Structure formats: structure tokens, C-alpha cells
Recover the amino acids of this structure.
């Protein structure tokens, strides 16, 4: 039986959420977002991209108004638990667990991120601004040299004990948790579910999902529903996830949502002329063919790959097209910190740059993204329902969802507007005329049939 050791707390809560497809999720790596409490800044080295940079939970809470103004409705944050203290050597550079994925103690927060009170305050402030909070949790491994490697070695696979399949391998050489052991499961469930219960967290992002056995996720699902409610959101990270890999996950009801890696890959190919509009349109029309009640979460960038803008060679015209496609797609779109400000970090570790706050005041891209988010929130047909292909040829694409239509011209020349469905259409983003400008997106709304 699980043991919840926290006293009853007064937490601000949001109403039960009917459909997570309505959300717009913003991902922030805590250490890279904002430093709100300099007193907890330990081992900070801003010149070292692999060190702590001082971001914390107080900094996030102080910037909630920025996210609310952008139109964000959910905030996904990296893990908050105590990290290993000793950095590893990465080609002569000290590599610290600034990212949060190298746990040393699951029962306490790392003081460099803040306290449990700071997390509770972040959740309360977010809720007061209509924003839900999704906490990243790690069940698969601990950090290099974690205390358990000597104090509880029987709970881990290490060295020669590491296996050769997805469940028993030691990912990146990290000590692998024996989640098949009841004692290990109980400890992890007490730690993570207990923290969520005490702080009012709205959901978990499940790290390294495919590296843990199905029976674990079944028990986890049952416990989160029992203690955290039916509405508690589980978003699984399954590398290369798409509608096909989602089928067994959703059939077993192990998670509510899966990151849609295919969306980033196919959108990049379309915007770089690797894939023609007709092929991309067919993909877009069928990408969300998943079981009712579940969803795929499309994204453009994450912290484990180069930013999409870097892959587009810094072409902000193309990233604007990508954002338009993202906001027209079914499933809660995920924006990575600073992506709306043109952050363009290349391969790791450059993709984990600090939030570029100096661009926040006058960013035309941010204003554009905010407009797209507002349109998505305003019209149900922007985010739900079947997609019809109106036109798809070479680099010109017109997609319709109900009374909304998205026109994309990825070409360097303006293109004549192809025939559109009968009715009175108005442009609510971009412009409507006899032609579609080069490298532009237009969103049309059907006013009258």
C-alpha cells in the first residue's frame, strides 16, 4: 500500500479538463529559463554549456505572465528531484545534471531548482493564470554515480548486468532501475505521485517510456487515476513516436498522449523541399488516426535534437510556416522554450541554450506565434475534426478543417490561388487575394456558404 506522508494542503485547482487536444503546451528546461532566486545558484558557470546556469522554479513563477500573454495553457517542466553532485567528464568539460534527468534522490527536490514550496507556488500561480503544469518524471534510471549504486545495488542493473533489449539495457550507461521489483516500484510511486499530490501538479511527462515494462505502466496508470484523478494527464516520450507506435500504448491505456516525432520530421522535409505538397498533405490528413480519447502531441523542436530553426538554416520565414502548420494540426502543440523568439540552437549542447529574454520585447516572430495561438483557441475547427485536402501541388498546399482553411506557399515565388470551396471566405491570418505570396501562410474562415 502506498504511504502518503504529506499533510493536507490548500491548492488552487483548475476545472476538470475535457479534452487535452485544446491545450497549447510550453516546454521549459528549468535551469535554462529564468533565475528568480540567485541564493540557490550552485556550481553555476554560464560559459560552460554543460553546467548549471541558475534557472529555478521561482524564475518560472515570475515569468508566468509571459506564458499567459503568449496564449500557453500548459507548462511542461523538466524533473525537479535531487541530481547527482559530481559532474562527469565530457571531452574535458565538466557535465553537470542541469537538465534534471540524473536523479540521486527521488524524495527531495534539488535545491538549485528550489523547494517543494516553490513548486507548489509555481503550480498555484500557473493555475491562477489558467495554465496547467506537467512535471517530467524519470522511472527508468538514476544518475551516474548515484547513491544507490553502492547503498542499494540490488535495485539497479549496472555494468555486466545490463541487458541487450529495450527494457534491460543501461541507456547511455546510466544505472538502470529494476522496475520489475515491487520495492523499487513502491519507492518511485511514493516519490513522484506523492509529490504531485502535495503540489497540485496536473500531469506527468513520462521519460524513456519504451525502456520500462508494460506491467509497470499499467500499475502506474491505476495509481495516478486513484490518487490524482481521472483527469491527470500522462504524456509519454517514445522516441520516433507516431500513430503506429501509439496503438499498443493507447490500447493498453498506459498514457493519454504520445509525442508525435513524425510531425517534426515530415514538416522539416516539406519545408526543405525534400517532400512534395501532395505527399505531405496525405500525411497531414491521416497523422492523427488514433483511438478516440487519446492524442498525439506535435512539436517542432525538443531538447534532444537541433532546434527546427537551425535545421532551416535560420530562415524565419520557414519557421513561421512551421508554426502555422503546428497550430492547424490535431493534438496539443508543444513549443520549446525560446522557439517563439527565434532560438536556433544547433546540435547538442547548443540546443539547450538559455532563454533569450533580450528578444522578448520586440520579437515579431513571438507576436506572430501569439496570433496563431489565439486563432487556434478561438476556432474549434482549427484543432479538431477531419482534414480535407483542397489543393496540394509542388510547394502549394491548402488544407481544410470544417470552416477553417490553411494555405501554405513554401516557394520563393508567389503562386496563383487555386480554386477554393464555394462560399464567402475571409482571411484572419495573412492575406486573401488572387495569389499567395512567396513563403507565406494564410488562414481563411468560412463566413457564409
Amino acid at each position: 500500500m502506498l504511504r502518503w506522508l504529506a499533510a493536507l494542503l490548500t491548492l488552487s485547482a483548475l476545472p476538470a479538463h475535457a479534452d487535452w487536444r485544446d491545450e497549447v503546451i510550453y516546454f521549459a528546461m528549468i535551469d535554462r529559463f529564468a533565475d528568480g532566486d540567485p541564493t540557490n545558484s550552485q556550481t553555476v558557470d554560464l560559459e560552460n554549456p554543460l553546467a548549471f546556469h541558475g534557472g529555478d522554479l521561482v524564475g518560472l513563477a515570475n515569468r508566468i505572465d509571459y506564458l499567459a500573454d503568449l496564449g500557453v495553457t500548459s507548462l511542461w517542466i523538466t524533473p525537479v528531484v535531487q541530481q547527482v553532485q559530481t559532474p562527469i567528464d565530457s571531452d574535458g568539460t565538466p557535465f553537470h545534471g542541469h537538465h534534471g534527468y540524473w536523479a540521486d534522490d527521488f524524495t527531495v527536490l534539488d535545491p538549485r531548482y528550489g523547494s517543494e514550496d516553490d513548486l507548489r507556488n509555481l503550480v498555484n500561480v500557473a493555475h491562477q493564470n489558467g495554465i496547467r503544469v506537467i512535471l517530467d518524471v524519470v522511472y527508468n534510471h538514476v544518475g551516474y554515480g548515484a547513491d544507490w549504486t553502492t547503498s542499494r545495488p540490488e535495485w539497479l542493473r549496472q555494468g555486466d548486468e545490463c541487458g541487450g533489449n529495450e527494457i534491460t539495457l543501461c541507456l547511455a550507461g546510466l544505472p538502470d532501475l529494476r522496475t520489475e521489483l515491487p520495492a523499487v516500484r513502491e519507492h518511485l510511486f511514493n516519490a513522484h505521485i506523492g509529490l504531485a499530490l502535495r503540489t497540485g501538479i496536473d500531469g506527468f511527462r513520462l521519460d524513456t517510456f519504451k525502456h520500462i515494462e508494460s506491467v509497470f505502466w499499467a500499475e502506474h496508470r491505476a495509481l495516478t487515476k486513484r490518487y490524482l484523478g481521472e483527469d491527470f494527464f500522462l504524456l509519454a516520450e517514445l522516441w520516433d513516436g507516431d500513430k503506429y507506435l501509439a496503438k499498443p500504448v493507447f490500447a493498453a491505456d498506459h498514457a493519454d498522449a504520445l509525442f508525435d516525432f513524425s510531425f517534426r520530421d515530415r514538416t522539416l522535409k516539406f519545408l526543405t523541399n525534400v517532400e512534395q505538397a501532395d505527399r505531405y498533405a496525405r500525411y497531414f490528413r491521416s497523422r492523427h488516426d488514433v483511438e478516440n480519447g487519446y492524442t498525439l502531441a506535435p512539436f517542432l523542436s525538443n531538447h534532444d535534437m537541433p532546434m527546427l530553426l537551425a535545421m532551416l538554416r535560420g530562415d524565419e520565414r520557414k519557421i513561421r510556416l512551421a508554426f502555422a502548420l503546428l497550430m492547424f494540426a490535431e493534438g496539443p502543440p508543444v513549443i520549446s522554450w525560446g522557439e517563439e523568439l527565434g532560438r536556433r540552437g544547433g546540435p547538442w549542447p547548443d540546443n539547450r541554450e538559455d532563454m533569450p529574454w533580450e528578444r522578448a520585447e520586440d520579437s515579431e516572430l513571438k507576436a506572430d506565434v501569439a496570433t496563431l495561438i489565439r486563432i487556434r483557441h478561438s476556432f474549434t475547427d482549427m484543432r479538431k475534426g477531419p482534414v480535407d485536402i483542397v489543393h496540394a501541388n509542388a510547394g502549394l498546399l491548402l488544407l481544410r478543417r470544417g470552416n477553417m482553411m490553411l494555405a501554405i506557399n513554401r516557394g520563393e515565388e508567389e503562386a496563383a490561388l487555386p480554386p477554393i470551396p464555394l462560399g464567402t471566405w475571409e482571411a484572419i491570418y495573412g492575406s486573401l487575394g488572387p495569389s499567395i505570396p512567396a513563403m507565406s501562410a494564410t488562414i481563411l474562415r468560412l463566413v457564409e456558404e
In short: Residues 20-385 form a domain with the TIM Barrel fold (CATH 3.20.20.80). Residues 1-10 have pLDDT under 50 and may be disordered. The longest strand covers residues 440-448.
